[in-house]
Amino acid sequence: MNFVEELKWRGMLHQMMPGTEELLAKGMTTAYVGIDPTADSLHIGHLCGVMMLRHFQRAGHKPLALVGGATGMIGDPSGKSAERNLLNEETLRHNVACIKAQLARFLDFESDAPNAAELVNNYDWMKDYTFLDFAREIGKHITVNYMMAKDSVKRRLNGEASDGLSFTEFTYQLLQGYDFLHLYQEKNCKLQMGGSDQWGNITTGTELIRRKLGADADAYALTCPLITKADGKKFGKTEQGNVWLDRRYTTPYKFYQFWLNVGDAEAERYIKIFTSLSREEIDALIEEHRADPGRRILQKRLGEEVTCLVHGREDYEMAVEASNILFGKATKESLMKLDEETFLSVFDGVPQFEVSREQALGAKAVDLFAETTKCFPSKGEMRKMVQGGGVSLNKEKLAAFDRPIEETDLIDGKYLLVQRGKKNYFLITVKG
Fold it and tell me: How does residue 227 score in pLDDT terms, banded at 50, 70 and 90?
């Protein structure tokens, strides 16, 4: 597999320094991508860089994932309009451990293959480096003129909304450049990859390596485009915020739904970028999808591949089961199969009521649904709808409007799902 060709057809190549392809053709090469550990989970905005490392390893090369324990304490000015909050060491250490666990689903860290992935943390080599030593040994090689010419610096200095750029953030590109120098010397790492907004920081690294080690030092840069949505907005954000890889922040169901709901043009792009499916498989899927877009073949396969990669097949299957509950035919058994987290995730946006066990158990359905709670505007309306077969409790048609609610009706021992007509759901939580 030719790594550069693979990136090209997948739409994952933005810029590449001359000589990069020749370097990769010579044999196994080591490359790294930097990840800022500002949270204890990656979000899908990180996935393009992570997939680059995955394809790099599949092509027989050695990937390094660098978590910026040191640079995360500074904050990268690229693409930012304001200074970011600085994290303490304990928080960063926790974030790094969580991120490694997520990366292990994409990269092989454990095998004894020569191209096994490694996780490195720049805090390890920066923590004992004194400011004076850094200024003498690194700072003297890169001029302020060179640093000021970078787009990330110019935008912040000239931006109307900006308060300028602190010295702390100004030094970021030099620190990132030193990471590349360190990995070049210690790990024989010849290539740094990242998003297109990182080009300036990456090329500072290649420049530092040449100035420090001589013109023959062969260090290279490669970037992927910043992924955007069809409307040009930032990819990976929803109205609720980022789509995270950690289920504590984005449940597998909501994660799957994100991919399921992308548009057709986006699905064609994303399936190339965020899966390892072959070109032939993807071309066949696109052709099949275009013949009948209503079946959403591309979105379903994209959702399957990415959800299985991030969460595993079991969580994917539960997400599909959960999707069918709202959008397809489902039974009480389907509801009972869901874990509580997924069940609540599915019905997150529906009207909810809380009642005590005394109020619920033994009560007539019509009293509980139309009086104690407001699932129905009146008892009369509920009676009419039940007679017309338009009311369901836990996905089963309610045959009698006055039938008592029993313990066996409770999902997970505490929930009742009421459905009025085809699309109106209500969730009652029975407390105590």
Answer: confident
Exposed / middle / buried, residue 210 (Cβ in 10 Å: 0-12, 13-18, 19+) = middle
Return the SS3 of 286.
helix
Active site annotation includes 38: yes
Of 197, 218, 264, 339, which residue is the catalytic one? 197
Task: Assess whether 197 carries a catalytic annotation.
Answer: yes
Can you tell me whether residue 26 is helix, strand or coil? coil
For 117, the 3-state DSSP assignment is: coil
237 part of the active site: yes
Q: Would strands 15-16 and 30-35 be described as parallel, antiparallel, or unpaired?
A: unpaired
**Is 395 annotated in the active site?**
no
What sign does the dihedral 157-161-165-170 (CA atoms) show?
negative
pLDDT tens-digit series, residues 297-319: 999 999 999 999 999 999 999 99
Residue 59 contacts by C-beta under 8 Å, 6 or more apart in sequence? 1, 2, 3, 6, 24
Q: What is the pTM of this model?
A: 0.85
Cα–Cα distance between 60 and 109 in angstroms, integer? 14
The predicted-structure confidence for 378-401, as pLDDT tens digits, reads as follows 999 999 999 999 999 999 999 999
30 part of the active site:
no
State the DSSP string of 148-200: HTSHHHHHHHH-TT-----HHHHTHHHHHHHHHHHHHHHH-EEEEEEEGGGHH
Token reading at 357: 């066990």
**Per residue in 389-427, is it b (16+ CB within 10 Å) or e — as a string?**
ebbbbbbeebeebeeebeeebbbeeebbbbbbeeeebbb
